[in-house]
Every structure is written in structure tokens, then in C-alpha cells.
Amino acid sequence: MTSATVRMSHGSGKGNKELLETVVFPALIPGGVGTLEDAFIFDIPGRRFAFTTDSFVVSPLEFPGGDIGKLAACGTINDLAMMAAKPILLSVALVLEEGLDLQLLAKMLRSLSAVCSSQGVRIACGDTKVVDKGKADGMFITASGIGIVKVGISLSAANAKPGDAVLVSGGIGLHGITVLSRRANLHFASSAVSDCAPLFGISDALLSAAPFTRTMRDATRGGLAAVLCELAESSKVCIMIREDAVPVPAVVRGACAFLGMDPFHVANEGRFAAIVPPEQAESALAALRAHPQGRDAAIIGTVAGPGKFPVLLKTSIGGTRPLEMPPGDILPRIC
Amino acid sequence: MTSATVRMSHGSGKGNKELLETVVFPALIPGGVGTLEDAFIFDIPGRRFAFTTDSFVVSPLEFPGGDIGKLAACGTINDLAMMAAKPILLSVALVLEEGLDLQLLAKMLRSLSAVCSSQGVRIACGDTKVVDKGKADGMFITASGIGIVKVGISLSAANAKPGDAVLVSGGIGLHGITVLSRRANLHFASSAVSDCAPLFGISDALLSAAPFTRTMRDATRGGLAAVLCELAESSKVCIMIREDAVPVPAVVRGACAFLGMDPFHVANEGRFAAIVPPEQAESALAALRAHPQGRDAAIIGTVAGPGKFPVLLKTSIGGTRPLEMPPGDILPRIC
User: A86 CB near a chain B CB, below 8 Å?
Assistant: First the structure.
């Protein structure tokens, strides 16, 4: 490594080769890369696939419980997991700002690689671009993923039906509060640790216990509120949530009370909502709770026929209020 | 459309929904999107696939002959085409800078979409993130692609053998000179038009005519020199190029002479090199020249056994010099 930071010359030619060979490949693919081709070639006859993509622009790059590398791997793996797909291949495209510390870059890539290794996901292809100082913010990662869909499972956001049960896999809001507390230096929330985690294991356990699950979705940007609104709108139903039933960790509750925020609007990176038919609700809950990531899982509501609002919240004090999508500017750059 | 520029609130929640529904989807998927899921699901039994990704950070966003949208579609399609894969699916991940003009965004997305339509490529999934003003440069696009590999074709950068012929599909350097002339306001190169184009048609024609083709690679960052060096190193051979045989458009020749640049180092986005066994060289050349994008195609050299340098250039004046990878900082952000 001839330089401690990313230079514009790392963007192409010899400089790019050097960056890849001394920093990117050793961190990302510790086993070594083979012949570099323009695309990764693979065969899997007779299977159904899922394909997804996400860009990650989180600020700051590191936070308690994770960093942009872990987030990129988890976020993309989770989008596949939510479609009942076992993640198998990941692509990694980097946009690096001139001046980025190369050791920090390597750390973020090792973090991404570690999640992939733990999940049996192969990093199949990648790209690295460099932009001038002031034209990005450290680094952005775009990860695309391919997964193999579990046989016999049919999930869709449009599948929820009146009578179905609504579950959440754990306490909500930790990722958003953690990133916010780091960004704004909020000492009262300094004990928060992001929930950022790969969800394939726990979601697959749920599908095994409740194979007629209608839909699952990880509650990222916009929080649980956004996910419930999206699912209700896609299925043309009303989702009724009992506020008391939703697990909210004390640090999230405290931070939200102080900041005037709604925990339902705060982003998660390791929590998901699932809608299951009523007869499988208890087995689904048991499967979630039996998993280390799901100890606080809960049945939080039911699906009703279409109404004036997509999601209604029965509040702790006995009232009812519509749960709406956040307007959008509460916690920018959370992932 | 309630605002003329991208706002931070377009990053999540209602604002994100509005941005997607009023700008991104109409521009990108004119036929309308179905139910939005976390991943795109598809079946193609018994086929071999290729998977690739690229981020695009070109500056400026628009240039004669193309823009960042066209570039993103072509660049990803071309990486698949170079592996003998017919592109079928594309993902589109956007990182938008606060303040980006929404009409410009829509224009870039329509441009991307038009290339996909013309090539029969489906836009399968996407993501949109917004970062603060000054933390990106207008917009970055990351496109990942999946293609189906042509049956009976086996290409690899490691396959070139002594005696093989080296071909280039057309005149080199137009993309790089075009972008540079726009960025630096070089009037003497104002007639340059980027070669940016999807290459699947012409590369597939070459493979039909020369099915034992060893390898193909599009000459993007680092130009033809970088591609030839990569192929020679992967195959552990020396590539001998006749300088006189390489087609260099007059505007590229003039600009490079004025700027002291080597046309071999200048990026292309619609030109590729191919290495074919000697007995198929003439049919490969005829197939390239018969295609509208390949009228200036040429056989530019031959493969020899390993030597001191990966690529040697026989110059017009009768000498020989090693053709090296560019150091990397000649033309940053060309794609």
C-alpha cells in the first residue's frame, strides 16, 4: 500500500489495479480472486431466483453494532430473505471519495465479507470508482444479490387477507436511534446498539413453522410504520395494530420521547414484520421466539377489510389513531 | 411533482414514495410497476447465467452521444455481452444529491430505460437514496445485470494462446475525448461524439461467426491499453500490436496529439477487443464489419508466447515499445 488515503489515480489504470490488489480484494475476498472477468458465470438448473439491489450511504460509516460494510451485506441479504430466498451471490460496487482512509476502507470491506462468509454468500463481482474530494461522503456501497427461492413458498405484499395475524420479529427502532445518537452526539442514547443483522436464518425458521405466511418485509427506512402502510396498500386491507403489543426497547422509547419522534417511524436493519394466516400465528411466533434474534418477537395486530386508513393503531390509552408513513426527513442517511 | 429539485425528504417515507411514483417509475418503467417487493423473482430452468455490476459517476452527467443513464445501461449490458451473455435483467440503484433537478433525473432515467427497451432488458429492481447537498455530485447510478450465457461458448481472459489474432471492433478513444472536451471546454474536440452503445448485437454476431473466440473485453477505463494488458496477464502471453492497424478517429488523434495523451489510454464505452484463433480471424473481422457498429473493425495484432512485457506495440516508424496500463489519473470519472 503506497498511500494512506484514496487518490483520484485509484480510479483507473495502474492505480485502480493497485487499489484492488492491495486493499479491496484482500479485505473482500480473503480466499483470493480467480481470473477477473467482466461478469460472474453460474449454473443452477431448475430453480427459482430472487434478484435485488440496494445502495448504502449511511452516515457515520461506523456505529455501535455495525458499519456500512455490515449494513450493505445485511441489507441486501435481508431483501432476499424477505422473499423466501436463500442468498447465494452478492455484487459489491464502491464509490470512494478521494482522501478516504485506506485502512478504514479495508475494515468496512472485511466487515461486509465477514457477514457473507457467515451466511454462505459468495461475493461474485464488483466495481470500484473514485470521485473527487467533496463529491461523495467517504464511501457509498451498492450491493446486489441473487438468492434461490424456497420451494413451495409464495410470498407477496399483495397477499394479506382479513383475519391474518401481524407479527414483528423483535424490539423496534434500535438501528435508527443508534445512528442518530452517533451523528448528533446524543449521550442519553449512547447505550443503543444497532439491530443490524442478517435475517435469513430467522425468516427461514418462520417459513418452516408457518409455510402459508403471506408476506414478510424488513422494517428499514420509514420504520415499521412504512412497512405496514406498504403492505396494507398492496393488499388493499386495513392493518390494526395494538400499540401495547409492539416491543419497543427502553432506550428507543426514551430517545423518542425526548426527541418527539414516533418509534414506529424509526429505521431497523434487523427486524421484520410478517403477516400469517390466523391458524399459523402461534407456530410462527414460537419459531421466531426460539431464534436468538427473535426473543422479543410478538403478535402485534390483525388484518381487517379495507378502511379509510391503511393502518390503525389502538393506543395504550384506549384510543385509535391512523399510523402514517413518516413524511421522510426524520432520519436521513440511516442506511 | 411538488418540487423541482431533489430534497433530503425524498430519501424515505412519504417523500421517497412521491419521488418514486412521480419521477423514477414513470421515467424508468413506462409500462408501470406491479406490486413492489423486496426482490424480483424469476425462473429460467437449466440455463447458465452471468452476473455483473458497475457504478457510474461520470462528470458531466450529459455529453454528446450519451448521458449517465445511457452509460449505466450500456456499461452493464456490455459486461454481460463480453461474457457471451444475452442481458435479460437490470437493477438500478440511485444515489441522488439534494438539489438535483428532477427533470434532469427523469431525463437520465428515460435514457437508461430506452437502452433497456431497445435491448429487450427488463428493469427488475431498484433503490433510491438521497444524500445532502455537497455529499455527492448530482447523481450516481449503480446497475447490476443478469444475462443468459450463449450455449457452446466458453470465454475467459485466461484463454488467449500464441498465434491468436487480436481484433478491435471500431475506432478508439471517442468516449474519453468527448467527455474530456465537455468537461474542460476544449473547442478543438467539440465535434467528438461518444461511442457509448450497447454491444450485445455486435458481440453476438462475432461469436456466431467465430464460435471459438477466446475472450472479448470492452475497452472502458484505461482504454485499449488496459484491456490488452489485462488479457495478456491473465493468459500469460505477450500481445503484439501493430500501431498502424489500430483505428483512431481523426478527432481523437488530434486531441491526443495536442494534449500529449496516448489514444490507447483513452476510455471507450462502445468498443471492444476480441482474441480469436487464427483460422477464425477473417470470419470474425467480416462479422464485425458487417455490423453497423463495426465498420471500422480491424485485426490489430497477434498473440505471442510470454515475454518481458505483456503488450508490445510495433510503432508506425518501425520501432517497438511496451504498451503499458495508464498510471490512472489521465481521465478521472469518465464513466
Answer: no
- What nine digits make up the cell of B334? 469518465
Which amino acid makes up residue A98?
E
3-state secondary structure of B66: strand
CB B301 within 8 A of CB B243: no
Structural contact between residues A44 and A147, judged by C-beta atoms closer than 8 angstroms: no
Residue B8 has pLDDT above 70, yes or no: yes
Round to whole Å and give the CA distance between A5 and A140: 16
pLDDT at residue B113 tops 70:
yes
- Whether a cis peptide bond, with omega within 30° of 0, leads into A60 is yes
Q: Considering only residues 260 to 299 of chain B, which have any Cβ-Cβ distance to chain A shorter than 8 Å?
A: 265, 267
Find the angle CA(A199)-CA(A334)-CA(B140) to the nearest 5 degrees.
Answer: 100
**Structural domains for chain A:** 38-149 (3.30.1330.10), 165-322 (3.90.650.10)
Within 13 Å, how many C-alpha atoms sit on residue A79's CB side? 29
Average pLDDT of adjacent 10-residue blocks, chain A of 335 residues:
74 84 87 80 84 96 97 97 96 95 94 96 93 95 96 93 98 96 81 96 98 96 94 96 97 93 96 98 98 98 96 93 83 88
Do residues B187 and B237 lie in contact, with contact meaning Cβ atoms separated by under 8 Å? no
Helix (H) or strand (E) holding A256: helix A250-259
Q: What is the pLDDT of residue B107?
A: 95
Considering Cα of B28, then B31, then B36, then B39, what sign does the dihedral take?
A: negative
CA distance B251 to chain A (A): 23
pTM for the whole structure: 0.94
pLDDT, tens digit, 9 for 90 and up, residues B168-182: 999 999 999 999 999
CA B324 to chain centre: 21
A89 to chain B, any CB pair closer than 8 A? The answer is: yes
The conformation of residue B20, written as its DSSP 8-state character, comes to I
Parallel, antiparallel or unpaired: strands B165-168 and B272-276: antiparallel
User: What pLDDT is recorded for position A90?
Assistant: 95
Whether A176 has its CB under 8 Å from any CB of chain B: the answer is no
Kind and range of the H or E element at B104?
Answer: helix B102-119
Of A37, A125, A325, which has the smallest distance from its Cβ to B13's Cβ?
A325
If you ran DSSP here, which 8-state letter would residue B167 be given?
Answer: E
Q: Which of A8, A51, A71, A74 is the best substitution to test chain B (most B C-beta atoms within 10 A)?
A: A51
294-323 in chain B: CB under 8 A from chain A: none
Average pLDDT over residues B66-87: 97
Q: Pick from A14, A40, A95: which is nearest to B327 by CB? A: A14
Q: Which of B53, B78, B148, B325 to mutate to test the interface with A (most CBs of A within 10 A)?
A: B53
- Confirm if B275 and B166 have CB atoms less than 8 A apart: yes
The pLDDT score that the predictor gives to residue B1 is 45
Backbone region of residue B327 per phi and psi (left: phi > 0; alpha: psi in -120 to 50; beta: other values): alpha
Place of cell 477505463: B221
Say which of B10, B226, B331 has its CB closest to residue A328: B10
Pick the residue from chain B with its C-alpha nearest to A53: B126
Worst-scoring range by mean pLDDT, A66-70, B16-20, B213-217? B16-20
Query: Chain A within 8 Å of B90 (Cβ-Cβ)?
Result: no
- CB-closest option in A14, A17, A130 to B332: A130
Give the pLDDT score at A117.
94
Does ipTM exceed 0.95?
A: no
CA dist A298 and A294 (Å) reads 9
**A152, A84 contact by CB (below 8 A):** no
